[in-house]
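Quick review question:
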């Protein structure tokens, strides 16, 4: 007899990870960090290396947050990501869209070099760079994201992170659904399986957490309206 499953099974995802986490681990960001640290050491000799590194992380997250509205306008078509060839940087090729319309292409070999971005219209590229500069000035952080290449790098990092998370969620739901259970995702990033959604929500709220998404056993309920 198969054992009933009605408890927390998986805790892989957190909702408090900055969107810049993935990109910060790559070589391009590492080079920016070294350049930033050299500049800070020359201008603020009193700061320790740890304080300088902490300032970099804080500023990077502020910058990434400031350009989010621009990144939301950027999309990808024919996006191909080759994880096994992603070494120093992400290996990918893609068409780039802005507000749903194709504006160029981008690619990276995955060996640590810069992303090669081609924007067909120079006016569109200039407008994006200008909009990005204004956003960074508004939060008093202008160390990063100077070019459209930087912008696309961050958008690609977010897209890969989104796709990876989507795969994890599908895998988690499959485990629960085979037991006839709906999946409740919480604000803290945990996943619970319950046949009765009302009972599940009450139990989760009693622990001080909050349900932010429900993946139903019946896929008809998951259709976006």
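Suggested answer, residue by residue:
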């Amino acid at each position: 007899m198969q054992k009933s499953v009605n408890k927390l099974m998986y805790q892989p995802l957190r909702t408090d990870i900055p969107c810049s986490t993935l990109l910060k681990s790559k070589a391009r960001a590492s080079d920016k960090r070294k350049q930033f640290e050299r500049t800070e050491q020359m201008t603020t000799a009193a700061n320790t290396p740890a304080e300088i590194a902490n300032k970099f992380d804080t500023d990077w997250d502020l910058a990434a947050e400031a350009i989010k509205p621009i990144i939301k306008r950027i999309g990808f078509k024919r996006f191909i990501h080759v994880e096994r060839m992603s070494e120093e940087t992400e290996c990918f090729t893609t068409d780039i869209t802005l507000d749903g319309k194709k504006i160029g292409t981008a690619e990276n070999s995955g060996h640590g070099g810069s992303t090669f971005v081609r924007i067909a219209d120079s006016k569109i590229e200039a407008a994006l760079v200008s909009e990005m500069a204004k956003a960074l000035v508004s939060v008093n952080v202008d160390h990063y994201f100077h070019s459209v290449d930087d912008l696309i790098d961050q958008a690609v990092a977010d897209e890969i992170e989104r796709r990876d998370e989507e795969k994890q969620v599908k895998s988690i739901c499959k485990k629960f659904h085979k037991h006839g259970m709906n999946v409740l995702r919480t604000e803290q990033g945990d996943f619970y399986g319950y046949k009765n959604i009302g009972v599940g929500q009450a139990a989760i709220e009693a622990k001080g957490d909050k349900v932010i998404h429900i993946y139903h056993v019946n896929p008809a309920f998951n259709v976006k309206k």
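Why it works: The beta strands are 74-81, 92-98, 101-108, 116-119, 182-186, 191-194, 211-215. Residues 66 and 141 are 9 Å apart (CA to CA).
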